[in-house]
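Study the following:
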Amino acid sequence: MSAHRLLNIMLLVLGYLLVPHASTAAESFPGKQSVWNGYQRFDFVHQQRRCIVVTPRNAAKGKPWIWRARFFGHEPQADLALVKRGFHLVYCDVANLYGSPTAVEHWNRFYQYLTSDHQFSAKVALEGMSRGGLIIYNWAAANPGKVSCIYGDAPVCDFKSWPGGKGTGKRSAGSWHTCLKAYGLTEAEALKFKGNPIDQLEPLAKMKIPLLHVVGASDQVVPVAENTAIIQQRFQKLGGKIEVISKPGIGHHPHSLKDPTRIVQFVLQHSGQPTD
């Protein structure tokens, strides 16, 4: 073999090694790159909001994704299991907007970016932990055709319950003030407001979006009776399908399940992915 031909072969091999595989190249996002639990993570700003995308090693057919609201990285066992199954894990920080119309608009723009520029599935699985319940439900109510399923984990479903503390739950005065500001409401107006998740279930029922809630039966921060129980009663009355996993003797923490299999199977099933 001539030296010239050997050099060409070596260059081809080197080029193959240096150029990312097609699946990796397609998952390139701007911003800082790091490794999260063994998976590639991108942190960047989109439309003035901090965003995170974690990419699987091999994206599942149709590029399904789980959209996490709040507390990224906390009790991540379900997220990790889904990334392992080929899901993208996505986060868009709207922390101090409490599911307000401004928060929904930020999510609208990020959804458009991911589905248009990165060809993510047109339907997303939503995950809302604690106050994240406000944005997942309000965004879903505004975009019911874009949601495959909803997983709420001790989710806030009525801001009067938390942070307002207008029932039996604990009030968070600072968060309540910020929430009112985000919505542009006075306290009197907020008490009459009909734009909370508990009030916007009809579009979800019409689209037959399945719901899963994981709650602590003894939650005193986001009381089940003022949040999940109302969602369950009203959604079932509308003909919707909801499963509630209640953890006896558990409060607001810990979130999720030690074994996330039931959560993962729920998301896989309703995202059109194999469950075996």
Observations:
- Strands lie at 32-36, 39-46, 49-55, 65-69, 88-92, 124-129, 147-153, 211-216, 242-247.
- DSSP finds ten helices and nine strands in the chain.
- The first strand starts at residue 32 and ends at 36.
